[in-house]
Write a structure and sequence with these properties.
By secondary structure, the chain is of the alpha/beta class. The protein folds into two domains: about 210 residues, Spore Coat Polysaccharide Biosynthesis Protein SpsA, Chain A; about 120 residues, no CATH class. Helix content is about 50%, strand content about 20%. It has eleven helices and eleven strands. The protein has a nine-stranded mixed β-sheet, with helices on both faces. Strands 7-8 form a two-stranded antiparallel sheet. Helix 5 packs across helix 11. It is globular and about 75 Å long. The chain starts with a strand and ends in a 5-residue tail after the last strand. The mean pLDDT is about 95.
Length: about 350
């Protein structure tokens, strides 16, 4: 076995957790320890994870960053590898991911994240509308910077930066930025492949985007989420105000609605030109098909509105103090030992 503790945060992941654990236990050289931090699930996530062979730490409530911190703090080994419950890994992914750590040539490694959306809404959002997030390693090498999941690192790095932040959004990029400030030895390991299989309906996607928007504001760097939106909708608003002053309020409102719709179509077409080949490769559908184009415009505009709803939540609930996020320290309420051999 490899001297590594795998950390998996999970909440209501009964449909996914066993597949990930089984893919980890089926590695060419499996990890010595798999820890699932059950963050207040209302389903059988904890029991299923234990039956599949994981050590389970149950807490009352935790966002993923908090859950990872709990797992890392209770890990047996100094090498930490992270995955999310909706993922599964190639048979040799772990061995390849931590080989540079064992060889002493890196302090943190990143594998390759292969996105395999399972639903129509998720496919359009992740493959077509989301721009790839590039990360520049020391020396200028550019890689796709996925979340903390499918990364491995020495626990000392986690300790030196003070762990992950408790927010529900941007905790991964914030952790990476603070680690990079230490100038550690990093290595991208593209042959260590992780498959991410998200499946969210429209309502769940909008709720998540709304929460992410609020928590990006709580993180103190709103421009990373809202910068582009403010520029786009600010231009729409200025144009509409000009029309409204010149021709009346009704024409101003008409211009705002028209600019939003036409702008949404043009922004979607730009995304299609950027990411359309990837979308076709993954789904087999043309991004210019009427059903795809219509869905993409509607998803783009509705997620914009969900982001603004998140900003309103932040303003009313957090800044005005009606129901602010407190991020209490998660409390451990139980532990289950692995039941599988």
């Amino acid at each position: 076995m490899l001297p590594v503790s795998v950390i998996i945060p999970a909440r209501n992941e009964a449909d996914n957790i066993a597949k990930l654990i089984q893919s980890l236990k089926g590695q060419t050289t499996p990890p010595a320890e798999i820890i699932v931090v059950d963050a207040g699930s209302s389903d059988d996530t904890a029991a299923i994870a234990a039956q599949a062979g994981a050590r389970v730490i149950k807490v009352d409530r935790a966002y993923p960053g908090q859950a990872r911190n709990i797992g890392i703090a209770h890990a047996t080994y100094d090498i930490i590898a992270c995955w999310d419950a909706s993922m599964r890994v190639a048979p040799d992914a772990l061995e390849k991911l931590i080989q540079p750590l064992l060889a002493g040539t890196a302090e943190m490694t990143s594998g390759h994240l292969e996105i395999l959306p399972q639903g129509w809404t998720t496919s359009i959002y992740l493959l077509l509308l989301m721009s790839p997030y590039n990360h520049v390693l020391p020396g200028g090498k550019v890689i796709y910077a996925h979340p903390v999941a499918c990364n491995a690192f020495y626990r000392s790095l986690w300790e030196r930066v003070g762990g992950l932040r408790p927010w529900r959004a941007r905790e991964d990029s914030d952790f990476r930025q603070r680690v990079l400030a230490l100038k550690p030895r990093l290595q991208y390991v593209p042959e260590s492949i992780t498959y991410w299989e998200p499946d969210e309906d429209w309502g769940k996607l909008l709720r998540k985007v709304r929460l992410y928007g609020r928590h990006n504001l709580l993180s103190g760097k709103p421009s990373e989420w809202y910068g582009g939106l403010v520029r786009v909708y600010g231009a729409y608003l200025l144009l509409s105000l000009g029309v409204g002053v010149g021709y009346g309020v009704s024409w101003g409102l008409f211009m705002l609605i028209g600019a939003t719709i036409i702008g949404g179509i043009l922004r979607t077409l730009r995304k299609i030109l950027q990411n359309g080949a990837l979308f076709t490769q993954k789904t087999g559908h043309s991004p210019f098909a009427p059903s795809v184009l219509l869905s993409a415009v509607l998803i783009l505009l509705s997620t914009d509105m969900a982001s603004f709803a998140g900003a309103l939540d932040w303003l009313v609930l957090d800044k005005l103090g009606l129901e602010p996020e407190r991020f209490p320290q998660p409390q451990i309420i139980g532990e289950l030992s692995p039941q599988a051999s």
